[in-house]
Amino acid sequence: MEKIASFTVDHLRLEPGIYVSRKDADPATGAVATTFDLRMTAPNREPVMDTAAVHAIEHLGATYLRNFDEWKDRILYFGPMGCRTGFYLIVWGDYDAAQVVELVRGLFQFIAGFVGEIPGARPQECGNYHDSDLAQAQWWARRYLDQTLTGIDEAHLTYPQC
Fold first, then answer.
1. pTM
2. Is-contact 121 62, C-beta < 8 A?
3. DSSP for 38-61, written as a single string
């Protein structure tokens, strides 16, 4: 079997950042979808996020992105990586990482400052409504903003390859 693209990224050197994970074109229409890796922790070197924080970020992030006028029609998916070191953001269009920095900053500013009940976190709306922690989500959002998104440079927008 061929090695998938995400397994060619050197996770021993990968730092938190925003990276283009892949670009896929529909063979029938040529429409492109870009998958971004929103990496929030250094894999294998920093603690991973707790599932309750990840779940809260997922609900808040999806709500923000699907309601943001400039981008809402281009959002295909926002959700966690299985390794709990970040999130995938998939959008319609052919973009590079620098083109979504402001969108991602706004997303994590929204999460860091959110007040109220997490959207979609009631038993009738969510299959695991108990597992959600707004305070942890906000801590991770602030950390990502302060340590990664503020002053992000080219090194944190381009994957290190194996």
1. 0.95
2. no
3. EE-S-TTTSPPPPHHHHHHHHHHH
Q: How far apart are CA 74 and CA 76, in angstroms?
A: 6
pLDDT attached to residue 6: 81
Residues 34 and 90: beta-carbon distance below 8 Å:
yes
- Residue whose pair of structure tokens reads 């707790």 in the numeric block: 50
Measured distance CA(86)–CA(80) in Å, rounded:
6
CB distance 20 to 12 below 8 Å: no
User: In whole angstroms, what is the distance from residue 74 CA to residue 33 CA?
Assistant: 9
Spatial CA neighbour of 147 closest among 89, 98, 108: 108
CATH numbers and ranges of domains, the chain: 5-156 (3.30.1360.80)
Q: What is the pLDDT of residues 58-98, one digit of tens each?
A: 999 999 999 999 999 999 999 999 999 999 999 999 999 99
